[in-house]
Specification:
This protein has a 7-stranded mixed beta sheet. It is globular. It is built from 1 helix and 10 strands. It is mainly beta.
Amino acid sequence: MAVNFVGGCLCGQIRFTAIGVPHNPHTCSCKMCQRHSGALTVAWVEFASEEVSWDGPGGAPKVWRSSDYSSRAFCPECGSTLGAIDDAPVIALVLGVFDANSRKTLEPKSHSYISRRPKWWCIGCN
């Protein structure tokens, strides 16, 4: 059964609908994610490119080529980080832009580059 996930940027110009099963929900603390988002750790989830439509008044997000295989996506109006659009048919969206980001299927299952986080940054600590 296809499930809809919707979200968008801070100003509402860039909106998306992702229809399908989210893949690879994870957090990442690599330097690229830190600089792209301004956060120490970013939570991500992936969808096949054909499962994501950009349906807000601003259309598709602006992109900046961040590596030899991916571009970072953001709103050209408010600057909100939206995710990454890979050359492979994958769009990775940051969980903070989802309207309902507490859905169980979006819960991160792994943490990439945990060694790159500041040593005082504790994720999931008691």
